């Protein structure tokens, strides 16, 4: 018989996550946050390039006549800014090497909880969606208040690394499209994932989340072993998702791997940048406070 | 092999275990989960190759360790095959090593010379010696001699063994064994062992206290060798000898600057020559077209002893020239031909050149070509002859005066000097008189039959000896028969009987041959000859500046009465000088600036005599050998320890390098 949600919940783990999330959130900032949204408002906040889907009401016709460029006028306004977290809970996120203090999913859950805490304290509503994660990974609708934070903690504690993104990223596309449909204009979408199973369509799908007045920030969570590949000698590497096995000499293959990883990150960064999105690299052996700060800076439009 | 040995050695089969483990490991690379595996390039072949190279040293070490462990388990049941001294009572022993340094030890068996095998055997025996053991080393090259007096200093024994040099001497095994036996006879040890390391030189050892453990030294060898090549006028006489095991035809080759055609009257004979080897010696004679040419002869093809396949042709003037001054009527024989003296000399030294002289030369230069002089029944020597003879003797000549009735009737100006005083007189008598065999024993066994030597009388030498004379032979009645007197570098022998068969029986007795042999030997030692045996001592007069240049460099001179240390100082008053050639070949002896060529030749028995044998019962009873009782455990344990240490170092080094690389990559 399937256990109920409360029966499955590890209250001790939940307590630890709560404390850790609070500590991380308190380390980021306390109460000084102002929710900002660029778009329609009172105070002019500059231009940006036009992308298909933008409201033509804000097209700067003078700039078009003067510079022959399609530019959209932006204005700042004080308003609530919904936060949509998309947490990757596929099998690859369960990886943890000897050099790391936690698995990638644990690190992602901590980041997500801390962001939820920050958003709730700022008065912004928060919703969570999962990629993979099995039956326990249920989406949380956008809601505000401490109750939303508690629900997020429960959900993040229950989720286990399981499943994969399907062949050719079918589940990824379905999930991200659903997220796009549910997320209103002016929302901030933070995707927390290792991005390793996103395939070729991954950058495009993530970039599309940044349209329709939404902002998307992607946090790539990497284990230090994945970030640096410090293995030596002959080794057989097995992917955590799928039957892929690679026999190689790690010493000789290191440079090529790091180049391939950099190329992957470059592809995501380029795709996101088109719609004003950002990519932030987070290592699981790094300080989570700094990781959350980087994500918030990226959401503010400053460099991570 | 017992069950335990077999079981221990069976452990060695586990040598395949590390190999199998290595193959398994090589085939299965370490596996680990790595989510971004898709980003890693496949380098499968290279990774396997790396695995092979990295593990090869460790694999070898582990294999070695298993093998060593297996042998260690079987030790000391598994023995090394090397010579050791058996100690039935466990106490200290007296060990005499008789090492053969004769020419036959140059022959090769199993790819090594007998000499090197004998030395290795001696080294192995010394390694098994313990503190308290007394070691003596005797060399059996002729004459036998002690190389190391009995000593308990094993280091000194090893040093003495290292100093031994191979020679071309003949063999004197019997005397060497006697010498070795006497050397350890008085040592207070419960066990005395006498071990012969040599080919036994045709001897059959049956003494119970002697063993000869190295059987491989007694393998017959295929050997033919050149003994000498003597030039006599325009004739070249080549002597060669072959062993019983010699096979294959031999040929002679000329080595020199001049072509063969210009050396020999019939060069085709030399080039066509195909010598079928047969046991014993052969003599070849050639006619030279250039009597003064300098060249060598080589016997081919190479055999077990290549050291005796080449000989230098002796230069002209090195023959043993002997002058015989006698009256044919007095010393002749009824059948005619040479006198009895000449026939006896040729019988003793076939290669000697005998020159009969009618009268004794008056000038020294006429005598200088002779090494020895035999003067039969001289009727006195005039002043000129005495002067010439005195100078010749002083320079190293050896003379034998056979005094007879003519020696009694001296003319006014004549004397018998340097043989005797004028007082020597002929004592007629028809009664046969016997000589005293004991007084002539130095001439060898031939001195035993010296009864009834006289026919018509004898020369009384009582009181006729010149100053410095000594009686070296006497009659039964005590009267001197033979006098010996050194004159400068030379020697004078005076006999109280003539060679004439009418007046005495001396020339018909073996003792006469022995006397002449002694005379020629003395002449060879003093003046040199065409050839003398290797190992025969060459004697030189005192106070002469002598140098001897041999085939391998200067020869060391020994001075009588001075030990080796004193010779280098001026404190020693030099007496008679001597040198002993150890190698066959030509030597240049320089005496007061006058050079002379001498040849030291190999005893043909070193080639013709087959290796000796030892009675099996003797070998077992007196061997004192345990050819395989060496416990190799300590050495094997050390090897095992070293292998373990090496593996540990390799592993630690590899781990440290791996950690360093990982740390560098992380930071």
Unreliable stretches of chain B (pLDDT < 50, length at least 5) are: 565-571
Low-confidence stretches of chain A: 1-12, 30-37
Strand arrangement, major sheet of chain A: 6-5-4-7-8-11
CATH C-level label of the largest domain in chain A? Alpha Beta
What's the gyration radius of chain A in Å? 20 Å
Mean pLDDT score of chain B: 81
| CATH fold descriptor of the largest domain in chain A | Rossmann fold
**Helix amount of chain A, in percent?**
40-55%
**CATH topology grouping of the largest domain in chain B:** Rossmann fold
Give the helices and strands, then pairings:
The complex is a heterodimer of chains A (304) and B (667).
Chain A: H1 5-8, H2 11-28, E1 36-39, E2 43-49, H3 61-67, E3 71-78, E4 83-89, H4 104-121, E5 126-132, E6 140-143, H5 146-158, H6 170-182, E7 188-193, H7 202-209, E8 215-222, H8 224-228, E9 234-238, E10 245-249, H9 250-273, E11 278-283, H10 288-300
Parallel strand pairs in A: 4-5, 4-7, 7-8, 8-11
Antiparallel strand pairs in A: 1-3, 2-3, 5-6, 9-10
Chain B: H1 3-10, H2 16-27, E1 31-33, H3 44-74, E2 93-99, E3 108-109, E4 112-113, H4 114-127, E5 134-139, E6 145-151, H5 154-163, H6 173-185, E7 191-197, E8 204-205, E9 210-211, E10 224-232, E11 235-242, E12 251-256, H7 260-263, H8 267-272, E13 280-287, E14 295-300, E15 310-312, E16 321-325, H9 328-331, H10 340-348, E17 353-357, H11 364-367, E18 372-376, H12 383-394, E19 398-402, E20 425-428, E21 457-460, E22 469-474, E23 480-487, E24 490-495, H13 510-527, E25 532-533, E26 538-540, E27 546-550, E28 553-554, E29 558-559, H14 564-567, E30 577-579, E31 585-591, E32 594-601, H15 605-608, E33 613-614, H16 616-622, H17 633-666
Parallel strand pairs in B: 2-5, 2-7, 7-9, 8-33, 16-17, 16-18, 18-19, 19-24, 25-32
Antiparallel strand pairs in B: 3-4, 5-6, 10-11, 11-13, 12-14, 14-15, 20-21, 22-23, 23-24, 26-30, 27-28, 27-31, 29-30, 31-32
């Amino acid at each position: 018989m399937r256990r109920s949600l409360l029966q499955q919940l590890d209250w001790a783990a939940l307590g630890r996550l709560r404390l850790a999330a609070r500590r991380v959130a308190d380390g980021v900032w306390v109460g000084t946050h102002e929710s900002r949204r660029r778009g329609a408002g009172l105070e002019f906040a500059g231009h940006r390039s036009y992308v298909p889907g933008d409201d033509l009401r804000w097209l700067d016709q003078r700039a078009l006549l003067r510079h022959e460029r399609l530019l959209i006028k932006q204005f700042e306004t004080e308003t609530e800014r919904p936060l949509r977290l998309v947490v990757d809970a596929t099998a690859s996120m369960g990886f943890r090497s000897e050099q790391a203090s936690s698995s990638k999913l644990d690190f992602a859950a901590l980041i997500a909880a801390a962001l939820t805490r920050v958003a709730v304290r700022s008065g912004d509503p928060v919703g969570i969606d999962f990629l993979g994660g099995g039956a326990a990974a249920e989406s949380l609708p956008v809601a505000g208040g401490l109750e939303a934070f508690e629900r997020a903690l429960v959900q993040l504690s229950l989720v286990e690394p399981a499943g994969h993104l399907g062949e050719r990223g079918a589940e990824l596309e379905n999930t991200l499209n659903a997220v796009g449909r549910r997320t209103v204009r002016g929302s901030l979408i933070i995707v927390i994932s290792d991005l390793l199973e996103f395939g070729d369509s991954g950058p495009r799908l993530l970039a599309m989340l940044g349209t329709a007045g939404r902002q998307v920030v992607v946090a790539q969570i990497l284990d230090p072993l994945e970030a640096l590949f410090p293995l030596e000698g002959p080794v057989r590497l097995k992917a955590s998702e799928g039957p892929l096995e690679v026999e190689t000499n790690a010493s000789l293959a290191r440079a090529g791997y790091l180049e391939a990883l950099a190329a992957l990150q470059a592809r995501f960064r380029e795709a996101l940048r088109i719609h004003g999105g950002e990519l932030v690299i987070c290592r699981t052996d790094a300080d989570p406070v700094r990781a959350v700060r980087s994500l918030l800076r990226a959401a503010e439009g400053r460099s991570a | 092999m017992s069950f335990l040995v077999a079981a221990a050695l069976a452990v060695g089969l586990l040598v395949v275990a590390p190999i199998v483990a290595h193959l398994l490991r090589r085939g299965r690379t370490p596996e680990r989960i790595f989510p971004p595996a898709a980003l890693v390039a496949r380098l499968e072949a290279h990774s396997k190759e790396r695995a092979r190279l990295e593990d090869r040293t460790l694999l070898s070490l582990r294999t070695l360790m298993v093998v060593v462990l297996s042998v260690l388990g079987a030790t000391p049941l598994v023995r090394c095959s090397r010579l050791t001294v058996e100690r039935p009572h466990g106490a200290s022993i007296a060990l005499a090593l008789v090492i053969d340094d004769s020419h036959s030890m140059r022959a090769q068996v199993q790819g090594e010379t007998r000499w090197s095998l004998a030395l290795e055997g001696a080294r192995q025996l010394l390694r098994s010696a313990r503190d308290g053991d007394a070691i003596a080393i005797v060399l059996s090259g002729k004459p036998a001699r002690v190389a190391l007096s009995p000593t308990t200093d094993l280091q000194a024994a090893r040093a003495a063994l290292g100093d031994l040099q191979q020679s071309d001497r003949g063999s004197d095994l019997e005397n060497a064994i006697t010498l070795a036996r006497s050397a350890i006879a008085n040592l207070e040890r419960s066990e005395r062992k006498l071990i012969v390391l040599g080919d036994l030189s045709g001897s059959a050892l049956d003494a119970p206290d002697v063993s000869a453990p190295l059987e491989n030294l007694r393998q017959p060898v295929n050997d033919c060798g050149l003994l000498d090549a003597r030039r006599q006028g325009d004739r070249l006489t080549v002597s060669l000898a072959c062993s019983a095991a010699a096979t294959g035809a031999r040929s002679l080759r000329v080595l020199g600057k001049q072509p063969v055609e210009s050396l020999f009257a019939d060069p085709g004979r030399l080039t066509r020559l195909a010598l079928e080897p047969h046991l014993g010696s052969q003599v070849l004679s050639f006619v030279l077209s250039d009597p003064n040419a300098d060249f060598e002869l080589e016997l081919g093809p190479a055999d077990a002893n290549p050291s005796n396949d080449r000989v230098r042709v002796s230069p002209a003037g090195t023959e043993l020239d002997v002058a015989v001054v006698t009256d044919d009527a007095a010393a002749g024989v009824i059948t005619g031909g040479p006198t009895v003296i000449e026939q006896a000399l040729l019988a003793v030294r076939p290669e000697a050149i005998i020159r009969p002289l009618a009268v004794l030369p008056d000038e020294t230069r006429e005598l200088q070509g002779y090494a020895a002089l035999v003067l039969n029944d001289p009727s006195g020597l005039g002043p000129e002859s005495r002067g010439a003879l005195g100078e010749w003797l002083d320079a190293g000549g050896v003379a034998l005066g056979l005094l007879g009735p003519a020696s009694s009737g001296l003319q006014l100006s004549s004397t018998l000097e340097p043989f005797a005083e004028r007082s020597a007189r002929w004592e007629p008598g028809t009664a046969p008189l016997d000589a005293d065999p004991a007084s002539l024993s130095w001439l060898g066994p031939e001195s035993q039959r010296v009864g009834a030597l006289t026919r018509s009388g004898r020369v009384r030498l009582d009181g006729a000896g010149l100053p410095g004379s000594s009686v070296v032979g006497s009659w039964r009645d005590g009267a001197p028969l033979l006098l010996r007197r050194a004159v400068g570098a030379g020697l004078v022998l005076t006999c109280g009987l003539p060679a004439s068969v009418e007046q005495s029986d001396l020339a018909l007795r073996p003792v006469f041959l022995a006397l002449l042999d002694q005379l020629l030997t003395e002449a060879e030692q003093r003046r040199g000859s065409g050839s003398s045996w290797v190992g025969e001592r060459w004697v030189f007069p005192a106070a002469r500046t002598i140098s001897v240049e041999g085939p391998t460099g200067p020869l060391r001179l020994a001075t009588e009465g001075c030990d080796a240390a004193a010779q280098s100082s001026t404190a020693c008053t030099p007496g008679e000088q001597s040198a002993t050639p150890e190698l066959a070949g030509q030597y240049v002896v320089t005496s007061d600036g006058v050079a002379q060529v001498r040849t030291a030749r190999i005893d043909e028995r070193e080639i013709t005599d087959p290796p000796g044998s030892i009675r099996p019962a003797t070998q077992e009873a007196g061997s004192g050998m345990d050819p395989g009782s060496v416990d190799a455990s300590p050495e094997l344990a050390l090897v095992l320890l070293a292998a373990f240490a090496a593996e540990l170092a390799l592993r630690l080094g590899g781990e440290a390098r791996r950690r360093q690389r990982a740390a560098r990559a992380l930071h």
